Amino acid sequence: MARPASHLIEKYNIIEQFQRLNIRSIINMQLPGEHAHCGPPLDPGSGFTYSPQIFMDNDIYFYNFGMQDFGVSSLVSMIDGVKVLAFAVREGRVAVHCHAGLGRTGVLIACYLIYTLRISPSEAVHYVRIKRPRSIQTRAQLSQVSDFARLLGT
């Protein structure tokens, strides 16, 4: 999903929608302060377009695994993100976002699919792109998905 913003969370009752859909966690792949001049203003306390506290105050877990836009993280960080996502899925549905919900979000979800389903990188990327066209945007991101699979021995 694309990044939420405080005014949209309120306008569209995002908290109520999350609760109704059993979305129990939100994973943010952005770095604080990212895209400060693009779209809604950043929350001064969090550096994001929303305060994570609004989710946590409503029993929705918040996790942040920030990486550069159009970039990749270390494989160790990706493993951490995938493990947290796997844990969060056992608790309920999970919303994952970056800025547009395509690159970094797609990489995390593809790696999660490889980890949980033991599918190939190409199958994981294909599945993610069917659900969210244009996901996983750069060669480096595609390489990270393949490197993650190699690390797992799949």
TrEMBL record:
Name the family the entry cites.
Belongs to the protein-tyrosine phosphatase family. Non-receptor class PTPDC1 subfamily.
Q: Which SUPFAM superfamilies match?
A: (Phosphotyrosine protein) phosphatases II
* Chain ranges of the Tyrosine specific protein phosphatases domain: 76-143
Q: Which domain of life is it from?
A: Eukaryota
Question: Keyword annotations for this protein?
Answer: Cilium biogenesis/degradation, Hydrolase, Protein phosphatase
Which Pfam families does this chain map to?
DSPc
Mind listing the GO biological process terms from this record?
A: cell projection organization
Domain named Tyrosine-protein phosphatase is located at 1-154
Q: InterPro entries, alphabetically? A: Dual-sp_phosphatase_cat-dom, Prot-tyrosine_phosphatase-like, PTP, Tyr_Pase_AS, Tyr_Pase_cat, Tyr_Pase_dom, TYR_PHOSPHATASE_DUAL_dom
Q: What does this protein do?
A: May play roles in cilia formation and/or maintenance.
- What is the name attached to this protein's record? Protein tyrosine phosphatase domain-containing protein 1
